[in-house]
C-alpha cells in the first residue's frame, strides 16, 4: 500500500486501519489501531494524490472572481457622489455633510456585522451556491434603488438593505477554498484579492463617471427628465445591473462545493456553535491577526487620501487631485503585481507564516516612510522626495500580500470544512466592525495631529507604527497548523496543518 502526499507517493508498510495522512513515521508504529484520519478540513482531500495534483477549475474561479466584484461595487460605488447627493438632497450646511456621509457609508458595514454569522451558518447548512445567488440578487436590487433616494433617511434604509445581503464575500471565500488544494489555494486567493482590488477601483470610477449624467453629458442625457430628477440613479442602476448579471451567471454555471458529511447508523450531526469554533485550538490568535491586518489596511486606505491632499506644513504631501489619482493608480498596479506574480511562488517557498512575518516586518517601515517623505517636502528636497516616495509606495504595497496570507491561515486553522463558512463569517464580522469605526477614527486622529501639530503633525503615523509593531510581535504565535509550509517526513511531503488532530 502507498501513502500519498501532495507532491509524491511513498511506499510504506501499513494496514487497513492506518491513517493515510501522518505526521511522522512514529505514528505508523504507535497508532496502528486508531480510526482512519478524518477528512481534511476545507474539503481538501490532501491524502489523495489525484486531488493534490488537481488543477484549479479555471471557469469556476473566473465566475467566483466576477461575483467578487459586486460587494466593492456596492460599497465603494457611491463614494464619489455621496457628499454632493447628501448636500443637494438633505438641504444641509456644507460643514455638516461629512457627519451624515459617514453615517450612510458605515451603515452598510454595520448591518453586515450583525448578519454575517447568520449567513455563514446558512452557507454551512444549505449550501454555498443558494446563499451566494440569493445574496447577489438582493444586492442588485438594493444597490439599484439607492439612487432613487430623496431624503437622508431613505439613503440610510437603502444602504442598510445592501448590507443585509452580506453572504457574498464569505461564500465566495469558502467556494474558492473548496475549489482549490493546498498547492493551488495561494494562486486562487491571489485572483480573489485582485478581483476585490479591481472592484474597489472600478466601483468608484463608475460612480464618478456616471453620476449627474444630464449635467456631465448634456448632449447625450440632457433630454431625459428622469436623470435630471434622479441624477444619481444611473450609476446605481448600472452597478445593480452588473450584480444582476453576476446573479444569473452564478445561478446557471456555478457548481456547489459544500460536501455534506455522510451520516451512518442514523447518527445525527450536531453543528459546532460559533463560540465553539472561536474556542477551537489556534483559532483565537489567527482571528486576532486577521483583524489586526484588516485594521492596518483600513487605516491606511482611509488616511492616505487626506494625507496626500494635506499641505506639507501640516504633515501631508499637498498633492493635486491628478497626483492623488496617479499615486493611487501606481499603488493599485503594484499591488496587483505583488498579489498575482510574487505571492504564489513566495508562499510556496516560505509558507503562509513566512509571508505574514515578512509583511508584518514591513508594515512599520511602510508607515514610517510617510512622515519621512513629508520631511523632504518641508525641507524643500523635492528631487529626493520624487525619488524616494514612489519607491516606498510601490515597494510597500507588497504588504497587500498579508490580506491573502491571513485568509489562507484562516482556512488552515478551521476545525473542519463544515465550519468553514461560519469561521469566515466570524472573520468578516470583525472586518465589518473595523470598516464601521476604523476610517473615521484614524482620519480624525490625522486631523487632530495636523491641527495641533502633535509630533509635528505625525500623530496618526506614530499610532500606526505602534499598532504595526504589536503585530510584528504577535505573529510569532501563529499556530503551526496555519503556517502553510510543506514538510518532508520520511519520504512523504505533508502540507503544514493538513491533519486534524482529534
TrEMBL record:
Keywords: Membrane, Transmembrane, Transmembrane helix, Transport
Record's signal peptide: none
Its membrane topology: Multi-pass membrane protein
PROSITE patterns named in the record: MFS (PS50850)
Molecular function GO terms recorded: transmembrane transporter activity
Ranges where the record places region Disordered: 16-52
Primary localisation category: membrane
Pfam families recorded: MFS_1 (PF07690)
A Gene Ontology cellular-component term: membrane
Protein's name according to its UniProt entry: Major facilitator superfamily transporter
The organism of origin for this protein: Venustampulla echinocandica
Amino acid at each position: 500500500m502507498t501513502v500519498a502526499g501532495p507532491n509524491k507517493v511513498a511506499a510504506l508498510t501499513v494496514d487497513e486501519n492506518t491513517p493515510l495522512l501522518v505526521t511522522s513515521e512514529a505514528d505508523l508504529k504507535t497508532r496502528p489501531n486508531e480510526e482512519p484520519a478524518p477528512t481534511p478540513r476545507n474539503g481538501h482531500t490532501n491524502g489523495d494524490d489525484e486531488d493534490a495534483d488537481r488543477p484549479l477549475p479555471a471557469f469556476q474561479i473566473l465566475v467566483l472572481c466576477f461575483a467578487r466584484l459586486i460587494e466593492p461595487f456596492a460599497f465603494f460605488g457611491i463614494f464619489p457622489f455621496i457628499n454632493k447627493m447628501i448636500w443637494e438632497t438633505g438641504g444641509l450646511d456644507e460643514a455638516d455633510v461629512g457627519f451624515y456621509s459617514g453615517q450612510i457609508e458605515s451603515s452598510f458595514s454595520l448591518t453586515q456585522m450583525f448578519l454575517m454569522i447568520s449567513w455563514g451558518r446558512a452557507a454551512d447548512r444549505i449550501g454555498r451556491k443558494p446563499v451566494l445567488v440569493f445574496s447577489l440578487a438582493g444586492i442588485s436590487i438594493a444597490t439599484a434603488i439607492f439612487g432613487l433616494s430623496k431624503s437622508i433617511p431613505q439613503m440610510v434604509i437603502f444602504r442598510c438593505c445592501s448590507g443585509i445581503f452580506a453572504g457574498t464575500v464569505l461564500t465566495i471565500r469558502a467556494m474558492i477554498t473548496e475549489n482549490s488544494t493546498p498547492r493551488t489555494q495561494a494562486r486562487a486567493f491571489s485572483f480573489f484579492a485582485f478581483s476585490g482590488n479591481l472592484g474597489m477601483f472600478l466601483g468608484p470610477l463608475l460612480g464618478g463617471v456616471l453620476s449627474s449624467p444630464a449635467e456631465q453629458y448634456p448632449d447625450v442625457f440632457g433630454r431625459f427628465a428622469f436623470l435630471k430628477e434622479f441624477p444619481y440613479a444611473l450609476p446605481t442602476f448600472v452597478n445593480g445591473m452588473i450584480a444582476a448579471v453576476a446573479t444569473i451567471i452564478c445561478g446557471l454555471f456555478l457548481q456547489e462545493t459544500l460536501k455534506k458529511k455522510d451520516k451512518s447508523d442514523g447518527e445525527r450531526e450536531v453543528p459546532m456553535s460559533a463560540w465553539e469554533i472561536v474556542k477551537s485550538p489556534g483559532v483565537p490568535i489567527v482571528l486576532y491577526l486577521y483583524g489586526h491586518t484588516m485594521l492596518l489596511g483600513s487605516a491606511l486606505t482611509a488616511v492616505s487620501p487626506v494625507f496626500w491632499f494635506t499641505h506639507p506644513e501640516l504633515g501631508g504631501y499637498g498633492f493635486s487631485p491628478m497626483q492623488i489619482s496617479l499615486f493611487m493608480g501606481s499603488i493599485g498596479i503594484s499591488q496587483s503585481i505583488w498579489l498575482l506574480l510574487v505571492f504564489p511562488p513566495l508562499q510556496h517557498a516560505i509558507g503562509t507564516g513566512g509571508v505574514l512575518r515578512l509583511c508584518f516586518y514591513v508594515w512599520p517601515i511602510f508607515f514610517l516612510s510617510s512622515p519621512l517623505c513629508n520631511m523632504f517636502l518641508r525641507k524643500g528636497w523635492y528631487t529626493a522626495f520624487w525619488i524616494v516616495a514612489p519607491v516606498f509606495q510601490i515597494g510597500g504595497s507588497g504588504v497587500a500580500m498579508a490580506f491573502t496570507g491571513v485568509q489562507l491561515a484562516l482556512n488552515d486553522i478551521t476545525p473542519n470544512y463544515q465550519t468553514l463558512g461560519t469561521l469566515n463569517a466570524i472573520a468578516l464580522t470583525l472586518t465589518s466592525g473595523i470598516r464601521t469605526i476604523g476610517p473615521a477614527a484614524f482620519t480624525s486622529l490625522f486631523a487632530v495631529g495636523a491641527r495641533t501639530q502633535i509630533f509635528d503633525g505625525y500623530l496618526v503615523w506614530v499610532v500606526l507604527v505602534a499598532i504595526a509593531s504589536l503585530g510584528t510581535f504577535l505573529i510569532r504565535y501563529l499556530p503551526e497548523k496555519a503556517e502553510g509550509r510543506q514538510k518532508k517526513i520520511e519520504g512523504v511531503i505533508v502540507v503544514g496543518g493538513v491533519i486534524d488532530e482529534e
